[in-house]
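Below is one such protein, fold included:
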Amino acid sequence: MDDELFAMLLEQLEEAGEVAPEFDGDVIVLRGQPGQSAPELRLHLTPALLGRVLRDLAPDYAPVFPLLEPLEAALVVLWVHIMAAVEESSPRAADIELCPPGAAAPASRRLRAR
């Protein structure tokens, strides 16, 4: 299931037209499309971590999107946050890490689950 959710996220990123994922180990490199001035972002993410974060977020966001499965609702919300991070990015904040609840804070920029 985590691999399917990961594939769904990648598909959403590719369809956004604002980013193009490329892989470097467990990092997805997001680049603006040709002609955009957006800096490159590195999203540190694995299918297992994505699944863990989405399962944590799902109960909060399932009521917001009642026509979607709870994990898909959480994925929509996460995607919105990733797109916001892309739009607000600067060259000095090029790394984004998903942080499950209770995780220690690294120095890089993070999207935190609950």
Remarks:
- The CA atoms of residues 31 and 37 lie 9 Å apart.
